[in-house]
Specification:
The chain is mainly beta. The protein is 14% helix and 36% strand. The chain has 2 domains: 51 residues, no CATH class; 147 residues, Immunoglobulin-like (Sandwich). It contains 2 helices and 15 strands. The strands form 4 sheets. Strands 4-3-6-7-10-13 form a 6-stranded antiparallel beta sheet.
Length: 212
C-alpha cells in the first residue's frame, strides 16, 4: 500500500505512487535525489575527481623556464613557464580591481573587499586528451597557509573582459593551449602581495610568488 504524502501544489493528501494529484491535477514529481540520472551524474563527477587525484604524480618535477635559463624548483614567479609531466603553465598577470565585468554584467566586492584577478594559461604537452577536471586549478594562499577559492560569480563576469577559451566540460587535446582566469575576493586590510602566493594544482603542485 502506498503511503500518503502532501501535494506540493495544493497540499492535499495523495498516494506517493500517484502520477498526478486528484485534487488539482499537478504532477507528482519524484525528488531529484530519487531519480536514477541524478546518481549517474554524481557517480561520473566522483569518478572524474578521484581519477584526477589518482593520476597526480607526486614524484614528478617541474621545470621553470626563465628567459633562456631552465632550473628545477617548486616556487616560481609571474611570467615563468612551468613545465610538469603533462602541462606547460604560465601565470601571465595579477591585478586588483574594485569591480569586474562590462556595462551589462558586472560585480563588485562586498564592503571592505577587493578583487584579485589572475590570468593564466596552460598547454597539454602529452599525446593524450586530458579531462577538464584534471586541468590546472589555482588558489590564493596567505602566509598562514590559508587557501582561498575563487569567486565563481566574479570570475564569470571577469571572463567577459578577458574572453578565456578554457575547456569547461570537453577534454583538452594534445598540443592545445588555452587561456583561463580566476577572481578572488580578499579583504583589503589583509591583502598584501608579499603575504600571498598562488598555488597551482596540476599533476604536480607548485606555487608562484606574487611579489618581486
Amino acid at each position: 500500500m502506498s503511503k500518503m504524502i502532501k501535494c506540493k501544489s495544493c497540499n492535499a493528501d495523495i498516494a506517493s505512487s500517484a502520477k498526478v494529484c486528484p485534487s488539482c491535477g499537478a504532477k507528482n514529481k519524484k525528488p531529484i535525489f530519487k531519480r536514477w540520472w541524478f546518481w549517474v551524474i554524481i557517480g561520473v563527477a566522483v569518478i572524474c575527481i578521484v581519477s584526477g587525484n589518482t593520476n597526480k604524480e607526486e614524484n614528478s618535477t617541474v621545470s621553470v623556464t626563465k628567459g633562456e635559463n631552465s632550473q628545477k624548483e617548486d616556487t616560481c614567479k609571474i611570467g615563468d613557464t612551468i613545465t610538469t609531466d603533462k602541462f606547460e603553465v604560465t601565470i601571465n598577470g595579477i591585478t586588483t580591481k574594485n569591480s569586474v565585468g562590462n556595462e551589462y554584467l558586472s560585480a563588485t566586492p562586498s564592503e571592505g573587499g577587493i578583487y584579485v584577478c589572475i590570468d593564466f594559461a596552460y598547454k597539454n604537452i602529452t599525446d593524450q586528451p586530458i579531462s577538464s577536471f584534471s586541468c590546472p586549478q589555482i588558489k590564493l594562499v596567505d602566509d598562514k597557509g590559508t587557501k582561498y577559492s575563487s569567486d565563481i560569480e566574479a570570475s564569470s563576469y571577469y571572463a567577459t573582459e578577458t574572453d578565456p577559451d578554457r575547456k569547461i566540460l570537453s577534454d583538452l587535446n594534445p598540443g592545445i593551449k588555452v587561456k583561463d582566469s580566476a577572481v578572488f575576493e580578499i579583504s583589503q586590510e589583509i591583502y598584501k602581495p608579499e603575504n600571498f602566493r598562488i598555488s597551482v594544482d596540476a599533476d604536480k603542485d607548485f606555487t608562484v610568488s606574487i611579489s618581486e
